[in-house]
Write the structure tokens for this entry.
Amino acid sequence: MSNSIFRKDGTAQGVAKQRLIESLAKPDKRIIYDPYAKYFVLGASILKLMGHKFSVWLGDKIVPGMHEHLISRTRFIDDLIEKGASIDIEQYVILGAGYDSRAHRLKLTSKLKIFEVDQPEVQERKRSRLPDKTRNKGNVTYISIDFNNQSLKEQLLNVGFDQSKSTIFTLEGVSQYITKEAFNSTLKELAVLNQNSNSKIFISYVNKLIKDDPKACFGIGYSNPEKAVNFITKGSAKVGEPWISLYSAKEIEDLLSKNNFTVIENKTLADLNSKYFTPVGRTIPENHVFKLEHFVIAESKT
Ligand SMILES: C[S@@+](CC[C@H](N)C(=O)[O-])C[C@H]1O[C@@H](n2cnc3c(N)ncnc32)[C@H](O)[C@@H]1O
């Protein structure tokens, strides 16, 4: 494996690692299950030995609540996709898919056409590691792109994206890594692609308050918010993927509105705690709530 691959997939591995850790919990204690994450995470066998409880405890010593934040983001999107696919969604486009395995781990109708978009090196590694008998493998079309300087629209149309079909697009854990110009032009392309159909989009964004008021991005009593922000931003930069774009809720709303989408939900872990973690006996205490990234769902204006 060449070094260039590892320079590009550090954050994708980081998220997959949290999905692997969550999958180690007992079925009645976990909120998502990703049996594929182990294929992508370096040191997966060590994590398996450490187990769920110890791994989460260790993570909490460094940045409390980050594991639960990332896992609630995954579950929030799982719910969106499963609900959409059971009603009327015919296409699913995963933007910046990384090691996302929704195409394989969710029980989705085979009629749902799935497109995964990411950098070529990450996709190459992903495809080489997915086992041959992976569920729904033949139903995924891969598109290699750099959002910062390549167009999505032409590539999607070239591989059979149907503009008349209702679609869900997800951009999970990506907006902070691409320029605001690239984000805006991607949204513009989605608006054109969807002018004749009903679509939904999920976007996560990092709150720009992490710079001016980090305290506001965590629950009351969170210990040393500045240290947590520092640890995460420095860690991302260190693996070659610095956080370059931060947003306010108003900015996201305006950007989406300009591109023909209306925001219908804007949530953080604080809103999802009682929905996801309380039922499995893992309610996150207020002083461990990590909410610097927001989860937004928007739908195309009719
Ligand atoms: C934090 S990972 C999230 C991966 C996946 N969405 C998940 O939640 O598991 C960020 C992803 O964005 C992709 N990415 C970052 N910058 C990109 C760019 N300029 N063009 C295409 N993909 C990019 C990375 O390759 C990586 O897979």
